[in-house]
Amino acid sequence: MASEISRIFTQIIESAPPGELEEVYNYLVAIFPDKRDVIEKCVIRLAETHGIVLPGEGIACNENKDASGKFWDYKQKKKYNASYSTAQMFDVEPSTPVAKYPTFYSELVKEVDSYSKSHFPSDAVFEVIPHSSTKVNVILISEKLNKSNFYTGRWKAAYTFEEAQKARGNIVIDVHYYEEGNVRFKFDEAVEKECDFSPAAIVRFIQRAEDEVQLRVVNQFTVLNQNYFKNLRRLLPVTKSRINWGAAIGNYKLGTDVISEQ
Fold first, then answer.
1. Pair (114, 218) in one structural domain
2. Is the pLDDT of residue 243 over 60?
3. Mean pLDDT in residue range 150-164
4. In-domain check, residue 238
5. Which spans are transmembrane here (predicted)?
6. Is 90 exceeded by the pLDDT of residue 102?
7. The CATH number of the domain where 24 resides is what?
8. Residue of 22, 73, 76 whose CA lies nearest to 47
9. Cα Rg, the chain, nearest whole Å
10. Is the pLDDT at 258 greater than 50, yes or no?
11. Of 67, 124, 158, 236, which cross-links 116 as Cys (Cβ 3.0–4.6 Å)?
12. Are 74 and 119 in a shared domain?
């Protein structure tokens, strides 16, 4: 029974749109106050899998979590805890990672920082995670949360670069629009290609992969708009002339039926 409850909560929490995890958490706790612990565990699992953006350019995700449960900022050599439901950073402490940094780590951070600032319309947060001198992860997350205008959106890309190996990555886009309706767009794309193990080559790989994904998404929206969405619209004649409903009502079948019933 406990596992079934956890499964149901997990499904509900996983459906939370970008930036709306706190609202979903609060609603569930209000409805099931005796299940707070189960709900919190489900929230933690989701947050660490998808990653959450924290104030101060922090990220909390599986990739930068250590055995103690804290999250690393490898760029500034510090670690911290995170509140998953409110997306807040706390208990920050300076620390030196055990992992060995590639010799070009600082240059790679500058390259990724420059790329993120020039290619994302809203602020992007990133982390470059060293595993050894020959392997790094790059995590990029950009969110646009405009709840006053009823939309939230998020782009998350996670890449693995390793010397003498193919580069691998996964790009996830999640957009929610809910003004007088409820529209959700989700896109998930895996990428894998040859890539030299250098800062310029790594950023070039990221840019090409994300440009291709963006173009594919735009093309899909164009097809939807010109075909499927177009067929959903009700076709009505446009005469650009006013109708005198008082005089015209009897000329239409519906009006005739109404008049005859009186």
1. yes
2. no
3. 93
4. no
5. none
6. yes
7. 3.30.1140.60
8. 22
9. 25
10. no
11. 124
12. no
- Separation between Cα atoms, residue 211 and residue 31, nearest integer Å: 43
Write down the residue that tokens 């005198």 correspond to.
244
CATH of the domain at 215: 3.90.1150.210
Which pLDDT belongs to residue 221?
81
136 is a domain residue? yes
- Report pLDDT digits (tens) over 20-29: 888 888 999 9
